[in-house]
Design brief:
The chain has about 200 residues and is of the alpha+beta class. It folds into 2 domains: about 20-125, Immunoglobulin-like (Sandwich); about 130-200. Helix content is about 45%, strand content about 30%. It has helices spanning about 1-15, 70-75, 125-170, 180-200, and strands spanning about 20-30, 30-40, 50-55, 60-65, 65-70, 80-90, 95-100, 105-110, 115-125. The strands form 2 sheets. It has a 5-stranded mixed beta sheet. It has a 4-stranded antiparallel beta sheet with strand order 3-4-7-6. The termini are far apart. About 15% of the residues are buried.
Amino acid sequence: MKRSILILFLLNIVFSQTKQISQISISSKKNGISINILSDIALDKSQVTGWYNDTNSWYYMTIHNATGDVIALEKTRIEYPVSNIEIVNTGESIQIGFKMKLPVEDFEFYFDDSSSRLLVALRFPLSNVLASIEAERPNRSNKKNVDDNRSKSWIKGLYFTGSSIVGVGLLKRNNQKGWEIPVGFSLILIAYCYEQFIIYKAK
């Protein structure tokens, strides 16, 4: 009986140890954000709760029986759509708040006991994800237009150079004609082949 009481007492000490939150890192994804939380001792599922407040656009999570350096943790590098981070130590728990510029539709906790890490996955509504993907399309189109314009400028330059060299060759007397005409026509031929067969196929 005494042995059982001793074991329960020791287990209670182990599980009641205050965890130290030492690091928070934020990584932005297309469909949400990943928040990595590092502690000195692996966190238990029963210790962590989270919720999203629609009225003020803050996502809050509370880690019970844990603490951390508020000043150091609030210096965490943030990424869009997180605009601010707020840490509150209550003595019995630590509350971490993330100010969001996009709404959070769902979230999940993933516990990695081997590295004492907690991964928090915040997911955006599908409509926001699709809007983000759609917003990227004009940029790709603009890049393609720039590349096309560069190709056209290069071809025009080749045509012009080739024609100029041919013109110089034609102005020379018959007994003075040399490399100008064949080289000029070669440049014109290269420009024509590039325009007709390479650019046309790419489109």
